[in-house]
Amino acid sequence: SQKIEQNSEALNIQEGKTATLTCNYTNYSPAYLQWYRQDPGRGPVFLLLIRENEKEKRKERLKVTFDTTLKQSLFHITASQPADSATYLCASYNQGGKLIFGQGTELSVKP
Amino acid sequence: GAGVSQTPSNKVTEKGKYVELRCDPISGHTALYWYRQSLGQGPEFLIYFQGTGAADDSGLPNDRFFAVRPEGSVSTLKIQRTERGDSAVYLCASSLRAGDSGQETQYFGPGTRLLVL
Lengths: 111, 117
Description:
The complex is a heterodimer of chains A (111) and B (117).
Chain A: E1 3-6, E2 11-14, E3 19-26, E4 32-38, E5 45-51, E6 56-59, E7 62-67, E8 72-77, E9 86-93, E10 99-101, E11 105-110
Chain B: E1 5-7, E2 10-13, E3 19-24, E4 31-37, E5 44-50, E6 53-56, E7 65-68, E8 75-79, E9 88-95, E10 107-108, E11 112-116
Parallel strand pairs in B: 2-11
Antiparallel strand pairs in B: 1-3, 3-8, 4-5, 4-9, 5-6, 7-8, 9-10, 9-11
């Protein structure tokens, strides 16, 4: 079945460093990948969408890559801040039009 | 407000009872989605509506779960004979159109935290 997998281990980094989160997909080839941020007690909030023919996309301190050979997307936050601490979710629509999510990676940025 | 709203924010019920969870999507959004999220997991798809009709209900775990969207706006998720395993956060989302193109952004509500004792 179509799956999206993220590293379930929490990522702890120091303020100012770059955080890198990984998303791998199996058994399908999505045309788009989406990244969402989720804070405790809240619903996910859309951050970025990347198309399969876009190797890289940037928005302020965020950068997303899409490698169709590795079947992987990387999500980077540069110059990280404590306010970036949250869970980050990778998602993609499957062929049936359903948005499938990974399990999310919790990021903690320490001052 | 301009966002997706869900009520109640928290619901505590006893095993075997019936519950209804409500979702108010963003005005003008034709697609509405329900998800269930357990601790440490991503949202798990339950059902989505395009207009008034359920376009895909393949994620509903069993026939105790049912959802309606009678006028193409507000939706209600109904759970009969609740079980302890139904305890989770139930998220609702809406998008301008259905996700067939793969590009649609979904806008999520804050969720309803359901606890079945």
